[in-house]
Amino acid sequence: MSESKNGHYKVIGTRPIRHDGVDKVTGRAKYGADYAFPGMLFGKVLRSPHAHAIIKSINVEKALKMPGVKAIVTSADLPEAEDSTQQVGEAAMNPRYLSMNILAHQKALYDGHAIAAVAATSPHIAEEALRLIEVDYEVLPPVMTVDDAMKKNAPILLPNLRNKEEGDNPTNVANHLQFKRGDTKAGLAAADFVVEREFHTAMVHQGYIEPHNAVGIYNSDGQGTIYCSTQGAFDVRSMCAQVLGISVGKIKVVPAEIGGGFGGKTTIYLEPLSLMLAKKTGHPVKLVMTRGEVLRATGPTSGSKIKIKMGCTRDGKITGAEVWMAYEAGAFPGSPVGAGAMCLLAPYNIDNFQIDGYDVVVNRPKTAAYRAPGATNAAMASETVIDELAEKCGMDPIDFRIANAAKEGTAQIVGPPYKRIGFIETVEAIKNSPHYKSALTGKNRGRGVAAGFWFNAGMQSSATVNIQTDGTASVITGSTDIGGSRAAMAMITAEVLGMDVTDVRPTVADTDSTGHTDVTGGSRTTFATGMAVYNAAQDALRQLKERAAKTWEKKPEDVKFEDGKFSAEGEGIKPMTVKQLASRLARTGGPITGRAQVSTGGIGVGPAFAATLVDVEVDPDTGKVQILRATVAQDAGTAIHPSYVEGQMQGGTSQGLGWALNEEYFYDSKGTLKNIGLLDYRMPTCLDLPMIETAIVEIPNPIHPLGVRGVGEVSIVPPPAAVANAIYKATGVRMTELPMSPPRVLKAILEHRRVHDLQAAAAD
Amino acid sequence: MATAVIPSLMRKLTGGHDRVTVSGRNLREAIADLDRQYPGIANQLTEDGDIKASIAVSIDGEVGTNGVLDTIRESSEIHFLPQISGGN
To answer: Which of A456, A725, B21, B24 has its CA 20 to 30 A from that of A448?
Structure first.
């Protein structure tokens, strides 16, 4: 029985067992590192020990002479890539910078930057050979923070980088964005209460468990194949083609099963190296990163500095907001500061604001996408300031949010009005939750709430639905399955065709076997690939109706399809099931294949909101924060498979809580990353978190045939601010820095006590 | 006539105007008209005859998928947005 409140579904809204479940729990599912081919070689990457250095020379002669070493590649083997901005999948990227990140050209720009790659007959020989590669570095001072990078005489990372505002002067500021509406100064002047604070958030990693991997095969006819763990096989193909200067038609990418990505596997690192080494050696070459390499040299998300000033009237109406935000892009331009700027005030209807965002290069790894990129940093600032304003007004923090809520018709930060959205329903779901209605008692305990926004993306997807001769079906897409999308695609197919979901076999195909499909990212797969599957299933259904009409000598429009049966008015016509009709395909015109391709627009196709409620207990002696209880509400539009929607909500919340409390990159004064393992890069485990309670809100997305919005990201946005607000309630301390780790919380508590004691002494 | 909403940092090219009336059946014609009124702005929005990869265009609340060939109506409202990337 379907749980969905939208429409009368038989399959959508139920909770079937995922189609790939057995393979995954029995270990049969094939991940990238599982691939092996005859004659396969093993690759390893030499990485810079310096955060910022000129590469004066690289000498590979000794390494090449080592027995078992078959080939070495450096940036000298890469063609010059185009210096331009290009659209690849959902992201704009510069092929030149992408190439410079794959193998350092002239300069090493972060600790762990790839310098050379070796292929050898064993991974151990390849690793030994790395020690024989001689690199002459001229070490330069590292630039690790946006403050240092934006100083007037800061060391410059990229000598050719310019921005529109600084003319021909070299700079570390890659871009300045601004969003402005109304009269911010007047808005703030009209406020009865104004809160102004500065926030700092640490660079954090997605923490996917499976390291990056790639196997490259290059044939003598110029055809290459890459097996890898990726969120987007077509994007791997496009990016490799750009970096290697070859046609996309010469590369096939086979997406392996994926052990987590969260945005971090939407770009390339090892994939072009595997193909370059395969081309040089004539053998398949496999590379697999260590955990240390993943942390040092793949894309985390930005650390940031955000200054915010917001005001409201005594009765709780926000009158204006002024925001300055700078995000670390890593070594090359492209932080998510634009997205952060567009999300920061997105849940609210504010007439006067100005948001200035700066994309700043620093000597850290190039950032990659991470679940609602940029929005979590932003919400930490806006949602704690909103909590403070609500307190000044004496209002319940949820009522304050509802009083200022964006709704259908409200202008978004970027201008266009929202269509139907569910922000109010989402925060109301928290207010109506058993958690919110429960009492929180005990010393050093506090409860906090926060909300968040993410656009959700659309983009391009393709799908094929084949009707089998026994009335079952296969559905083929190019969306790698990270969160249960195979099951969702099978459910949509089954719903349209009136089948049992176990009669639909979903397949994730390689780039030669299905039409172009953008990344599994931006919460877009169930929205866009789901739309393509829905349309492909409808196409198959249309053809089935034609066959029934042909059989009965009727017009297709005279054929009805209800409850899995085709019927028509007429003497002697007996309703037929899909199975009965499918058995006659060969005699009524041949196979039936439903096809669809969709191009659904880029951003903001399914605006999504989440709200998080947390209870914490703070140890006043150590600063340790324990999460006692957490509830998340999220507008899914329509929940195709509620268990996987809940899984995304719980996963996003868990990552947000880790970001809130513990996770951060620790660099020393030389710019060397010190926490390169998961013991030191402290992600939450099941021992750190309670079972996260969920409330799925279903406000149908008006532009999707099934009302889907997408669910993969927004639940990561509110947790840090919710935890900060809860810590305030527990201790009286407003935290403004992430992570809120024990030393930082303890320091803030002690400072709070010191000020309190001084005030008390002065009063005496 | 359609309305083009000018991004904040491009308003120096339009004399501070945030909304400009433009004519055209599609985005290409609308941008050409915008450039006729405020020379130089097309260079900020287009490259090689198409919308820059770093920009998305929303027409009447929908992000277009046909680049400069997206249809503009008399009452259309056009917004130029930065492209973003997602994570899951």
So the answer is: A456
